[in-house]
Write a structure and sequence with these properties.
The complex is a heterodimer of chains A (about 350) and B (about 550). Chain A has about 350 residues and is of the alpha/beta class. Chain A is about 30% helix and about 20% strand. Chain A has 2 domains: about 15-55, no CATH class; about 60-340, LarA, N-terminal domain (Rossmann fold). The chains are: A alpha/beta (about 350), B mainly alpha (about 550).
Chain lengths: ~350, ~550
């Protein structure tokens, strides 16, 4: 085998000492940094060490909700009723009896309205809030009170966009100049409600609450298969997310918790489309009665008690009202605290 | 001996390269604009398929003008559904201009070209080599024949490879949820920093929902990604070798009036026309009209102006019009199609005895056998579904034949009572267009009753009131029909801790149940629901019904 001749023309490119040292130094720094992050005790700065495995667990951020109530106006009733005139007149009468809208909403307030938009149903089914009265309410707040912004939000059971559409709430809200918030993946954060037994910490529809000054609930009066009636307190169910389908295992306690969870500025109950049976979903317009009343007030417990007896025409209040009263959320005894402007 | 020396031909100097505005005003510029417009239109239609936007938009138009969809469904069903006749527009355009659809309109083609342009940069000689015609390009004609023969027997599988269908399916199950996820993260980051970011919601494909999931999206996405990745190996691999729509348009293009024409007297055989030839259509010799996408790149690249796109003064000798595929291969493909049909159909899951309980079709669907003649697996219904209940079928529900066709998954969500969007967007009538009145069985549809998707059942071994004496009945609460199809036996009982509890033990009234699945969707026994809907009793097929007749009160 012939010996290969060396190629005398070839010039190798030697790796320089400086380059070698630089590479070695960089590798040393990276190794030292990784070593520190992996082996330094947990409490040292920049240490990534996690001995128990719990350091890497997510810490759910928890927030609390402010109290949205305002001091009651002297001489105003806890619950106001409006029975005569068109919807707008009745709504005005009810709110006036309870102190008047301008007492509750001040100029430049950001107001959140929570209607019941739980299902993908027409307004005549009575399963959702009446869009016409919602529209009147938004107009009152924007025109009479000169509020800065009105938001409308709910976390429905069915597809949010469709529920807002078919219930007429989207059209009514946008026509009156309000803005709609739908629940998406970023909308929820854990709410801490001190004293609540079952939902002390629960995912809450927080996004529409950023920068809100006042909160108003507007709910229909509905039969309910399990808790007998869904009225103004039960309406706040729609601000929760998470595993709501567990609530039925102790529904009365949940509703009592809801009465503590949020302290709204004002509650409005709409007795123009009362779902008398087959609730809370309804489905047959013949289940719906027009009781011709609109209620407004600051004591949701009293409102619900009155509506249960006079609108749903039933006796023996649901248990959750007694529990809500014992939590200090109101008083089922509505006598002498209710006023009707005729 | 006399040697005859030809006098040298006077060679005209090559025309100067266009500059400035002239360079901009080329056919290729118009072609790129057209591609951008059609891509934007396609994405817009996908975006507009959401329930709050869909009103009035022809969101399935791209599928309805797809001639392969029309031809295959006509072969399968004998009829032209709704807007499918508009595919004639593309056929006529192809007869006039050749296979322009592939490089001027097809969004999948645009994606392939874009991918190659951006990621497959090569030296000039490699580019010229990679754009030479290859014999294997006949493969797509074979695929087309297999699919068409299968369609004519009643198994519509063109959706597996139709480019428009692939695009719709990929956007629905992969790209749309990924986009929404990214926008959600951006919103979260902005709002975490105190910037109100509700303005970003409009960009989402599905605004105002927590999350949409699509079963098997990984496989849809992988196939899509594979086709896109193949551009790095061979440019326009899918379009040249696989696309059945391209094969169909190529077969029509042989009759086209316009085509690329080579002036042999000007041509210097420099092969520069192959630099960017999208179709690998041999513009440097006899152009293969069936392969040519009419991308016009060769006209741009020809330094001698030897190439033109014209219908006048065509040189018949400089074109191979017909697809390069032998008759025997076509016959073989046809036989393969004939063979494939019983293979699919006798798989056993399309019968009325062995059908999967999970084979629950969306409202308005025709009976299963007819459904399989119509569904192209475009997943437009799944894209339009506002509750996310509609999912691409896996192999579980209907085997390979029903892969990626729409089924209802009530563990994810439920079918909304008054929603008929899936039936409105279906391009082929697998889901026949129905009104909310027809779905609910009211008004003039009173007689036939509501559309029933399946029937709910209670698993009393897992239901909290039945099995554990714990109050619940979410299912009764959410049941949307009046009177409710879930009713209860009410009883007072003592639980294991000695407490008295009132139990409402649910039971189903099958005469009233419409199979909407909201009971299953809301059942708190999450992993294996205590109330669940199966396909039996669905109104689209008498052979899959449950009850002989509906019970009535005898006193009434």
């Amino acid at each position: 085998m012939p010996k290969r001749k060396p190629n005398t023309d070839y010039r190798a490119t030697p790796v320089r000492r400086r380059e070698l040292l630089r590479t070695a130094a960089a590798a040393g720094v990276v190794a030292a940094g990784a070593g520190y992050a992996s082996f330094a005790p947990e409490h040292w700065p920049l240490s990534l060490r996690d001995d128990s495995g719990l350091r890497s667990m997510p810490q759910p951020s928890v927030f609390r909700l402010q109290d949205f109530r305002v001091a009651p106006k002297a001489g105003a009733a806890a619950v106001g009723l409006g029975r005569t005139g068109d919807d707008m007149t009745r709504l005005r009468k009810a709110i006036d009896a309870a102190g008047g809208i301008t007492h509750y909403i001040k100029p430049n307030d950001v107001v959140l309205i929570k209607p019941n938009v739980a299902f993908d149903r027409s307004p005549i089914i009575g399963a959702t809030s009446n869009p016409e009265i919602l529209e009147h309410l938004i107009q009152l707040i924007l025109v009479d009170c000169r509020a800065a912004e009105v938001r409308v939000a709910d976390n429905p059971i069915e597809s949010p966009a469709d529920c807002f559409e078919k219930s007429g709430i989207r059209l009514a809200s946008e026509r009156a100049g309000a803005r709609i918030y739908l629940p998406d993946g970023n909308a929820f954060e854990n709410l801490n409600t001190p004293g609540a037994t079952l939902i002390e910490s629960w995912p809450f529809f927080k996004r529409p609450f950023q920068g809100v000054d006042k909160v108003i609930g507007i709910a229909p009066v509905k039969d309910h298969n399990l808790c007998h009636a869904s009225m103004s307190i039960k309406n706040w169910y729609g601000l929760l997310g998470g595993r709501r389908n567990q609530f039925h295992q102790d529904i009365h306690e949940i509703i009592a918790d809801l009465s503590m969870m949020i302290k709204p500025t004002l509650s409005i109950l709409d007795g123009t489309h009362v779902l008398m049976e087959n609730g809370p979903t309804g489905g047959d317009p013949s289940n719906v009665k027009n009781a011709g009343v609109i209620m407004a007030g600051t004591d949701a417990v009293a409102m619900d008690a009155w509506a249960y007896e006079h609108l749903l025409e039933r006796s023996g209040l649901p248990e959750y009202l007694a529990r809500a009263q014992s939590r200090g959320s109101g008083d089922v005894n509505y006598k002498d605290r209710i006023r009707e402007i005729v | 001996m006399n040697v005859i020396v030809q006098p040298p031909q006077p060679k005209t100097p090559p025309p100067p390269r266009p500059t400035g505005l002239n360079r901009l005003l080329r056919l290729t510029t118009v072609r790129v604009l057209s591609q951008i417009v059609f891509m934007a239109l396609f994405i817009f239609f996908c975006w507009a398929s959401w329930t709050s936007r869909i009103e009035g938009f022809p969101v399935s138009m791209m599928l309805e003008i797809d001639p392969l969809v029309t031809l295959a469904t006509v072969l399968a069903t004998g009829y032209v559904y709704k807007f499918l006749g508009w595919a004639l527009v593309i056929v006529i355009i192809t007869i006039i201009f050749g296979r322009v659809f592939c490089n001027w309109a097809c969004p999948f083609g645009t994606l392939h070209q874009f991918t190659g342009w951006l990621f497959n940069v090569k030296t000039n000689s490699t580019r010229i080599r990679s754009n030479r015609y290859e014999g294997a390009q006949y493969l797509k004609y074979g695929i087309l024949i297999v699919f068409l023969v299968m369609s004519s027997m009643g198994a519509l599988q063109i959706g597996l490879l139709d480019p428009i269908v692939i695009m719709y399916r990929a956007v629905t199950t992969v790209i749309a949820p990924a986009t929404d996820m990214a926008i959600g993260e951006a919103t979260r980051a902005l709002e975490g920093a105190g910037v109100e970011a509700t303005f970003l919601d409009v960009l989402k494909f599905a605004p105002g929902v927590e999350r949409r999931v699509f079963v098997g999206s990984f496989w849809v996405g992988s196939l899509f990604m594979l086709f896109v990745s193949l551009n790095l190996w061979k440019p326009r691999f899918f379009c040249r070798f696989l696309c059945p729509l391209g094969a169909m348009l190529g077969s029509i293009a042989r009759f086209s009036l316009f085509r690329i024409n080579r002036d042999v007297n000007k041509c210097t055989d420099c092969n520069l026309c192959l630099m960017r030839c999208e179709g690998a259509a041999d513009p440097q010799s006899q152009v293969r009209t069936a392969e040519c996408f009419s991308c016009m790149n060769c006209i741009d690249d020809c330094p001698e102006d030897a190439l033109s796109f014209s219908l006048l003064k065509l040189d018949r000798a400089q074109a191979k019009l017909a697809p390069d595929v032998s008759r025997r291969r076509l016959v073989f493909s046809a036989l393969a199609g004939v063979f494939a049909f019983p293979m699919l159909r006798n798989n056993g899951l399309a019968t009325d005895e062995n059908f999967s309980p999970a084979m629950i079709r969306p409202p308005g669907s025709v009976a299963e056998e007819e459904f399989l003649e119509r569904c192209i697996k475009c997943d437009q219904c799944i894209n339009a579904c506002p509750t996310n209940v509609l999912q691409p079928a896996t192999l579980e529900e209907g085997g390979i034949e029903a892969l990626w066709t729409p089924v209802m998954n009530f563990r994810i969500s439920h079918c909304q009572l008054k929603c008929t969007l899936c039936s409105e967007v279906c391009p082929t009538g697998a889901i026949r267009e129905i009104s909310a009145e027809e779905k609910l069985g009211v008004g003039e549809h009173q007689e036939q009753g509501p559309v029933v998707l399946g029937t709910a059942f209670i698993d009393t071994t897992r239901c909290l009131p039945w099995a554990n004496k714990i109050p619940c009945v979410v299912c009764e609460e959410v049941c949307p029909v009046a009177p409710k199809a879930i009713q209860t036996y009410d009883e007072e009982a003592k639980d294991v801790f000695g407490n008295t509890v009132v139990l409402n033990k649910p039971f189903i009234v099958p005469e009233l149940c419409i199979g909407c699945g909201i009971c299953e969707a809301e059942c708190p026994v999450l992993d294996q629901r205590a109330v669940y809907v199966t396909a039996v009793g669905e109104s689209r097929s008498k052979d899959r019904s449950l009850l002989l007749q509906k019970r009535k009160s005898e006193s009434a």
